[in-house]
Amino acid sequence: MRAVQYRTFGEPADVMSLATVDEPHAGPGAVRIAVEAIGVNPVDWKVLGGAMSGASAGDEVPGGPTTPGMDVAGVVDEVGDGAGEVAVGDRVVGYAASGALAEHAVLQVWARAPEEVTSEQAATLPVPAETALRVLEALGLEEGQTLLVDGGAGAVGIAITQIALSRGAQVVATASEANHDFLRELGAVPTTYGEGLVERVRALEPQGVDGALDAAGKGSVRDLVELTGDPARVVTIADFGAGELGVQVSGGDDQRGRRLQEAARLAGLGVVRIPVARTYPLEEAVAAYEESRGGHVRGKLVITTR
Description:
Elements: E1 2-5, H1 12-15, E2 17-20, E3 31-40, H2 42-49, E4 71-79, E5 91-96, E6 104-112, H3 119-122, H4 126-139, E7 146-150, H5 155-166, E8 170-174, H6 180-186, E9 189-191, H7 197-204, E10 211-214, H8 221-228, E11 234-236, E12 248-249, H9 256-269, E13 276-281, H10 285-294, E14 300-304
Parallel strand pairs: 7-8, 7-10, 8-9, 10-11, 11-12, 13-14
Antiparallel strand pairs: 1-2, 3-4, 3-6, 3-14, 4-5, 5-6
Helix pairs in contact: 4-5, 4-9, 7-8
């Protein structure tokens, strides 16, 4: 099968290449899918560059050639022993244990893809929607309270805005001015990011905000703490050094399967709809990763195998 692989850490254009490799197979508790769509997340190219492991450019990847990517949607074509209520032919979405950028992928965590969404739309869900649900659980916002999202036009920002609004919260979200009309369409109150954020948000919400998410990692955490009045009311998913300020630094946990099921349910109801900003064929995966690294994607980039 065709798969994108990398042998050393570094820039996507320097280390990613399309190769012909052996197909993976579903072991116990897993399924294999014929991949139709792969969602691109910032964490994908951060892993590739070594940022998540402390590796440097040029260091060899432990275990040899590796296929990058996590979020994937497709059709089950192999079911491992004890995989549960799933059958060949089911459309599913989940996390690729064997790497997503390939024509086949093995999944150990998945959910049925809603009939109401395409595979491209389903592939936008796993990391962004699961992260949004995890952050909302951590903040414990109640109906009528206000959430501030720094980085509202990215996939996580869009997902958390949609879910929070559906639960009766109010949302203030930052983005470039070019994305303000889009945020208004979602139901959020937009403002710009960067210097002066505290004053702008206080002008919009004189009573303050009840919780905040840093989804951008651009140095806003201190402002978010000032706006909420309590570092425990701030979660970051992008500034891993911010824990020293007392804020919650949120990463994955053992509940992502439960949250993925909920994300798929919400997508089927139309609550969560993350726009597909652009699609790329598998052979142009490098270009997709480079665009993601540029940091100005509204929604999600998706790579297809079809």
